[in-house]
Inverse folding.
C-alpha cells in the first residue's frame, strides 16, 4: 500500500490527538527550516532539516512531533514531542523559495512553500514543504487559516526575509 497524503494526515491527527489533552484543530506536515528553540546548535538544525514533523495546533498550543511513514505499508510512526509553544500571540506568515537539487549533469529548482511562526518573545520558527498536489495545499491552507484566525494583524510589517503576511 502506497502512503497517500490524506491517509498520512488522518493517521497523524489520530496519533498526535491521542498524546494531547486538547482537541486537534489543524495539522501541518512540514520539515523544519530553522532552529525550533533559541540557541539550538547548527548540527541539530541540520539534522532536523531531514526529518518530517507534524505541527499540531490545539486551542491553546502548538506542538511538534517527528514522524515516519512506511514506504510500502503506509504505517505512520509518531515519535515523542520535540517542541511546543503557547498559541497566544503567535503570528503566522507564509512565503516560498526554490531549493536546488543538483545532479551530475543538471540542476533542478524545486519550489518550496514556507510557513513561519513569529512568537511574542521575538523567536521565529520556519517550516517548509513541497506543494505536490491539492491535498498538501489544502492542509497548509487549513493550518495557516487556523493559526491566523484571531492572530492576523494585516497592519503589521512583513515577517522574516522572504515572507509575505
Amino acid at each position: 500500500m502506497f502512503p497517500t497524503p490524506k491517509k498520512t494526515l488522518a493517521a497523524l491527527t489520530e496519533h498526535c490527538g491521542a498524546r494531547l489533552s486538547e482537541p486537534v484543530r489543524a495539522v501541518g506536515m512540514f520539515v523544519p527550516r530553522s532552529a525550533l528553540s533559541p540557541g539550538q546548535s547548527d548540527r541539530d538544525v541540520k539534522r532536523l532539516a531531514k526529518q518530517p514533523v507534524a505541527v499540531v495546533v490545539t486551542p491553546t498550543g502548538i506542538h511538534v512531533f517527528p514522524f515516519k511513514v512506511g514506504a510500502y505499508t503506509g504505517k505512520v510512526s509518531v515519535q515523542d514531542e520535540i517542541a511546543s509553544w503557547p498559541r497566544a500571540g503567535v503570528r503566522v506568515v507564509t512565503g516560498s523559495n526554490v531549493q536546488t537539487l543538483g545532479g551530475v549533469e543538471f540542476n533542478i529548482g524545486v519550489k518550496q512553500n514556507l510557513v513561519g511562526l513569529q512568537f511574542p518573545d521575538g523567536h521565529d520558527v520556519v517550516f517548509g514543504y513541497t506543494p505536490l498536489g491539492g491535498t498538501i495545499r489544502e492542509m497548509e491552507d487549513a493550518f495557516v487559516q487556523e493559526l491566523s484566525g484571531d492572530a492576523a494583524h494585516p497592519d503589521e510589517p512583513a515577517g522574516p526575509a522572504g515572507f509575505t503576511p
Summary: The helical segments are 5-19, 42-48, 134-148. Residues 5-19 form the longest helix (15 residues).
